[in-house]
């Protein structure tokens, strides 16, 4: 999934006399099939370690789509109300009593488990960051989850080393694109699996030399060819699905296989403006 960001300026203004409510995107209709709709929801409560952000841009992350797919599959219960979303950029509106790193008016991006798709978003101080001067807020809105998840997978947990070979499944996703850049920076040899040849030119533009395409290439055979029959040290399977068993076979003894999500197994989830659930398959 590629990260998408959207502006909140199109929300209709709420009643000035009803200051405890804000416009938001929220999930409703749990029993009949969850829908994403525009409406009003209570202002977030500001805890002592929280930062209240006046939202400018929100990011739709993989975890948002996974949650929606879980709701629609019946594997998780959809919330009856409350703003959805986990990440947004904007300006600090207020800070909790214990917050020390932020002041009113600071430009920031925040991450939290829910609540970002609203005019006001409360995020923990520990997962809120200042925006560097001149940074496009649309880039900032999409950065934290993707960068943190990729860096943690490759370096903190995966211990990727220079000279190792990493295979990235679903390389055209936001996580895949970030992984290519961090892996190349670390000195690794990178192979990417894309879903369509139309993406090849853009992938080469970020430094990816070895691009495999679903439907065009025999993934196993080409990976073995590119590694002289050895296999790969690391598989980063961004969307673990039907190919997981085959990709694991490519990992050398002592290598690593990391699957960030099982979104591929859950089916597509619409995230459209009207919140219409997909037709049964």
Account of the 3D structure:
With 281 residues, this protein is α/β, with parallel strands linked by helices. It contains 7 helices and 13 strands. The longest helix has 21 residues.
Which properties best describe this structure?
single chain; 281 residues; alpha/beta; six-stranded antiparallel β-sheet; five-stranded parallel β-sheet; 7 helices; 30% strand; disordered C terminus
Brief description of this entry?
The chain has seven helices and 13 strands. It is 25% helix and 30% strand.
Strand percentage lies at 25-35%
Count the beta strands.
13
Give the ordered list of helices and strands.
Answer: EEEEHEEEEHEHEHEHEHEH
Separation of termini? 21 Å
Low-confidence stretches: 1-16, 263-281
Outline the biggest β-sheet: 6 strands, antiparallel
Question: How many distinct helices?
Answer: 7
**In percent, how helical is the residue content?**
10-25%
Radius of gyration: 21 Å
Mean pLDDT: 81
Q: Indicate the structural class.
A: alpha/beta
Shape: elongated
């Amino acid at each position: 999934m590629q990260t998408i960001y959207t502006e909140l300026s199109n929300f209709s203004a709420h009643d000035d006399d009803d200051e405890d409510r804000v416009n938001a995107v929220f999930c409703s209709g749990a029993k009949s099939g969850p829908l994403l709709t525009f409406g009003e929801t209570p202002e977030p409560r500001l805890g002592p370690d929280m930062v209240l952000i006046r939202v400018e841009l929100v990011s739709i992350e993989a975890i948002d789509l996974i949650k929606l797919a879980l709701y629609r599959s019946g594997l998780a219960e959809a919330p009856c109300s409350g703003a959805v979303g986990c990440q947004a950029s904007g300006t600090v509106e207020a800070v909790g009593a214990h917050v020390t790193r932020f002041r009113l008016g600071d430009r920031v991006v925040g991450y939290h488990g829910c609540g970002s798709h609203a005019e006001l978003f409360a995020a923990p101080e520990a997962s809120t960051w200042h925006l560097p001067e001149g940074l496009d807020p649309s880039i900032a809105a999409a950065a934290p989850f993707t960068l943190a998840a990729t860096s943690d997978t490759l370096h903190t947990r995966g211990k990727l080393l220079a000279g190792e070979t990493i295979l990235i499944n679903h390389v055209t996703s936001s996580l895949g694109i970030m992984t290519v850049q961090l892996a190349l920076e670390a000195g690794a040899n990178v192979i990417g699996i894309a879903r369509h040849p139309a993406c090849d030119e853009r992938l080469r533009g970020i430094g990816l030399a070895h691009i495999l395409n679903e439907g065009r290439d025999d993934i196993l055979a080409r990976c073995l060819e590119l590694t002289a029959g050895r296999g790969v040290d690391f598989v980063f399977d961004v969307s673990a699905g039907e190919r997981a068993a085959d990709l694991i076979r490519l990992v050398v003894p002592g290598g690593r296989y990391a699957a960030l999500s099982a979104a591929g197994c859950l089916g597509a989830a619409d995230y459209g403006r009207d919140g219409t659930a997909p037709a049964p398959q």
